[in-house]
């Protein structure tokens, strides 16, 4: 299955022969970009999709195409409010889903922020670590009983994880100088480590978890970067790929960027992807060379660090799972 698709595959190509009727999916971050496309592709193939978003008005207007795809594909789509930068909002969202009681076959933790100016969430966590990791950590664990046996958790990470491991002693930049890319890298590494430990804890009932790099696409994720920042980042990526002997850098369309998420959620074998990091519709190889290149850093897959991050995350959100 690994070799069936590639970097240029689209979400619809990945799901071409798949009927998702009767499957229920939670996708976070459905107010723009890859999240919207992920929800659309799943709903178009018959899934019942619940889209979570901080700004429901924005999400409503952004997901007309999702509703149309759901209607045409015999799926369904609904929205629920979720602000990952507020633990109270996360708890409220989880409580509503729990009260409804309908199980999920798949959770795709897609929402996130990137390279933000220094700031803190409503609960005092550094913005990127709090939003990208802690919000999803709390949400998923509070609704874990809703995940059906044989289900999947897919965490959308990034090759930005290569920039930094998680500083377990100072994840919220209370004692070190803030760097937006180090912070982003830390939060994306946390996404991978969360999947590693979640997979270990729940594989006994067939629930598997993985993390992935969707690919670089033109989305609102880059809203905190100037044009000069983007040019510099593109140049750095191109130089690193050339040094590694990799093909030239190319932007992905939203559908291409959503392909690995739906592949990991629906098509890939659970034993193949469980506790792993994926890219371009395949499991990525470990590559500890510096720079923005393909592959996963070994620290992101370290089972001991995954357990330590889990314990630290429980401490920070004030709940044990």
How does this model look, in words?
The chain is an alpha/beta fold and 321 residues long. The protein has one domain: Rossmann fold. The protein has helices spanning 11-14, 33-44, 56-62, 64-73, 87-100, 127-142, 180-202, 227-243, 254-267, 270-273, 303-317; strands spanning 24-28, 48-53, 76-81, 104-109, 147-156, 208-213, 277-279. It has a 7-stranded parallel sheet with strand order 3-2-1-4-5-6-7, sandwiched between helices. Strand 1 (24-28), helix 2 (33-44) and strand 2 (48-53) form a beta-alpha-beta unit. The two termini are 33 Å apart. The relative contact order is 0.16.
Key terms:
alpha/beta, seven-stranded parallel β-sheet, 13% strand, Rossmann fold, 11 helices, 321 residues
Structural class: alpha/beta
What would CATH call the homologous superfamily? NAD(P)-binding Rossmann-like Domain
Nearest-integer average pLDDT: 95
Counted beta strands: 7
Spatial shape = globular
Helix share, percent: 40-55%
Whole-number total of structural domains? 1
Beta percentage is 5-15%
Distance between the termini: 33 Å
**What's the CATH architecture?**
3-Layer(aba) Sandwich
**CATH C-level class:** Alpha Beta
Major beta sheet summary = 7 strands, parallel
Oligomeric state, counting identical vs distinct chains: single chain
What string gives the helices and strands in order? HEHEHHEHEHEHEHHHEH
CATH topology: Rossmann fold
Strand order in the sheet with the most strands: 3-2-1-4-5-6-7
């Amino acid at each position: 299955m690994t070799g069936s698709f590639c970097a240029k595959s689209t979400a619809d190509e990945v799901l071409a022969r798949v009927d998702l009727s009767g499957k229920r999916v939670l996708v976070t971050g459905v107010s723009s970009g890859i999240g919207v496309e992920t929800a659309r592709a799943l709903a178009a193939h018959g899934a019942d999709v619940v889209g979570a978003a901080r700004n429901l008005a924005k999400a409503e207007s952004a997901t007309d195409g999702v509703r149309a795809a759901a209607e045409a594909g015999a799926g369904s789509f609904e929205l629920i409010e979720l602000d990952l930068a507020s633990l109270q909002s996360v708890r409220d969202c989880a409580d509503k889903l729990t009260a409804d009681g309908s199980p999920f076959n798949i959770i795709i933790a897609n929402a996130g922020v990137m390279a933000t100016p220094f700031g803190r969430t409503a609960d005092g966590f550094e913005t990127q670590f709090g939003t990208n990791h802690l919000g999803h950590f709390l949400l998923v664990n509070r609704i874990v009983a809703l995940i059906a046996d044989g289900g999947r958790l897919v965490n959308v990470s990034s090759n930005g994880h290569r920039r930094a491991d998680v500083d377990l002693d100072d994840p919220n930049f209370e004692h070190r100088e803030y760097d937006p890319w180090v912070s982003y890298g830390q939060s994306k590494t946390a996404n991978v480590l969360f999947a590693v430990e979640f997979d270990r804890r729940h594989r006994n009932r067939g629930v598997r978890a993985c993390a992935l790099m969707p690919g670089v696409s033109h989305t609102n994720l880059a809203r905190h970067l100037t044009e000069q920042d983007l040019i510099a980042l593109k140049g750095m990526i191109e130089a690193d790929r050339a040094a590694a002997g990799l093909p030239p850098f190319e932007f992905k369309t939203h559908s291409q960027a959503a392909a690995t998420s739906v592949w990991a959620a629906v098509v890939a074998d659970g034993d193949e992807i469980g506790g792993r990091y994926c890219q371009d519709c395949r499991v990525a190889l470990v590559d500890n060379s510096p720079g923005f290149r393909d592959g996963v850093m070994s620290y992101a897959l370290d089972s001991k660090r995954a357990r330590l991050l889990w314990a630290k995350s429980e401490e920070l959100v004030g709940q044990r799972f």
